[in-house]
Design brief:
By secondary structure, the chain is of the alpha/beta class. Helix content is 45%, strand content 16%. The relative contact order is 0.12.
């Protein structure tokens, strides 16, 4: 990647649309615009003003399209460089021709995520904010969008910066003693350093505590419907989706494969999976479906263990109970509109249970709330103050930082030399720098920005 090149790309989805946008960033952006864009009267470009005119091929003199063009002079632009955006009609062929014209006059095709990478390199945003851009694009619910926007606005970055400031202060005091060894650190002074490190560690623990919720919003969760045949799994799926997605009949074994749909449960993106009824079967196809259902139980974030209250527990239920040992699950007692003959025992008496009837819809909303609370604990994730850790890379780096601070505290209590104590604080700062991008390697940056589309 050559960051001094002028780059260009289509930054609207390919296909037919009302508008197609070609973005150019770099030193030649203004010159390329002046070469291929014609308007009357022609007085050049003023920054941050729209101009109406025509895209002209200088070689043939042919008019490609009428367009609006806006020039944004750096650093007041997305990349902090000179940026020119051409807005033409959104036909696939037309936008490609406009891009080709731009490339033929000095720009090169941008790599995936290169516009945002330049914004990061030029200091407009840090790496947390850059990664939030792709989260904003991929969001499936209002709550996940709110979290991504808060990260893009710098709320998480400010929390990380506050931790970093404390560690920097502690390191400054330790290094002062290294530079002036004749000045011993008094007991009070050392207590202040240790207290600063402990406070930084506590702040990290608070940030890490929100990771499960943040990741659930960012990546969504998987919820599996499990139970023996004819307990109402497919009926529940249809009820949640408010459409007939799965076939429902009185014949056992109707569902043989896994049916998956994504649903928004109070802002939580949920991939809900309906599986084959778990039972002993001589049918090879049904047996394969049962095995697939059992395999999915071990990988789902949450299992809804469905029971028919009008039928007693049997060997199939006991088989499912064995699979649920140590798993995250909610007991769903279905067909509560019928006389109840089931008798719960053991684990299920103390476990969370929700009574529903898929026939009349009673209790389904309570079940959806129980799913939401299981992952988000009923927090107001759409509030302006809400920010949570949601990225595995960020979590791993924070855990490395916390481990370094823990070693510092243990070594300080053991009377280790200040030079060795300083190493742990520098390790902690390096780990934080991996999150914000100050110490992130080029390989990691490449992996991050390759997730972006070309044009962003």
């Amino acid at each position: 990647m050559y960051i001094h090149d002028t780059i260009a790309a289509i930054c609207t989805p390919l296909g037919e649309g009302g508008i197609g946008i070609v973005r150019i960033s770099g030193d030649q952006a203004r010159q390329i615009g002046s070469t291929i864009f014609s308007r009357k009267p022609d007085g050049g470009f003023q920054s941050h003003r729209f101009y109406y005119g025509s895209i002209i091929d200088p070689g043939s003199g042919a008019t490609l399209d009428e367009a609006l063009v806006v020039f944004m002079q750096g650093p007041r632009s997305y990349t902090c460089e000179d940026v020119l955006e051409i807005q033409c009609h959104g036909g696939y062929l037309l936008v490609q021709r406009v891009l080709g014209l731009v490339l033929s006059h000095g720009a090169r095709l941008a790599e995936p995520g290169e516009f945002t990478r330049r914004a990061f390199i030029n200091g407009r945003i840090d790496l947390i904010q850059a990664e939030a851009v792709i989260d904003i694009i991929r969001c499936k619910t209002d709550a996940s969008l709110s979290l991504a926007q808060h990260q893009h606005a710098g709320l998480l970055s400010r929390q990380i910066d506050a931790v970093r400031e404390g560690i920097v202060n502690a390191l400054a005091h330790v290094e002062a003693h290294i530079d002036f060894p004749e000045e011993e650190i008094e007991a009070d002074g050392f207590a202040d350093i240790a207290g600063t490190v402990v406070k930084a560690r506590e702040s990290i623990d608070e940030i890490l505590a929100g990771f499960a919720e943040g990741r659930a919003l960012r990546e969504g969760v998987s919820v599996l419907l499990a139970g023996k045949p004819n307990v109402g799994k497919s009926s529940l799926l249809n009820s949640i989706l408010r459409e007939k997605r799965a076939i429902v009949t009185a014949i056992p074994g109707t569902t043989r494969d896994v049916i998956e749909e994504v649903v928004n449960i109070h802002g939580l993106p949920v991939r809900i999976m309906d599986t084959a009824g778990i039972c002993e079967s001589d049918d090879d196809i049904e047996s394969e479906g049962v095995q697939l259902a059992l395999d999915k139980i071990s990988r789902a974030d949450l299992v809804l263990y469905m029971l028919d209250v009008s039928r007693p527990l049997d060997s199939n239920d006991r088989r499912i109970e064995d699979e649920l040992e140590g798993r995250n699950f909610i007991v769903v007692l279905n067909k509560c509109d019928l006389p109840e003959v089931i008798s719960l025992h053991g684990t299920f008496l103390a476990h969370e249970a929700v009574r529903i009837s898929t026939l009349n819809g009673d209790g389904v909303d309570r079940l959806l709330q129980a799913i939401h609370t299981r992952f988000l604990h009923a927090r107001a994730v759409d509030s302006r103050e809400y920010v949570a850790l949601s990225n595995v890379r960020h979590r791993d780096s924070l855990e490395k930082c916390a481990a370094a601070l823990q070693r510092f505290t243990a070594n300080a209590m053991g009377g280790l030399y200040p030079e060795l104590l300083a190493i742990e604080l520098r390790e902690a700062l390096h780990a934080l720098g991996e999150i914000t991008g100050e110490t992130t390697t080029d390989d990691i940056l490449d992996q991050i920005f390759k997730q972006f589309c070309i044009g962003k």
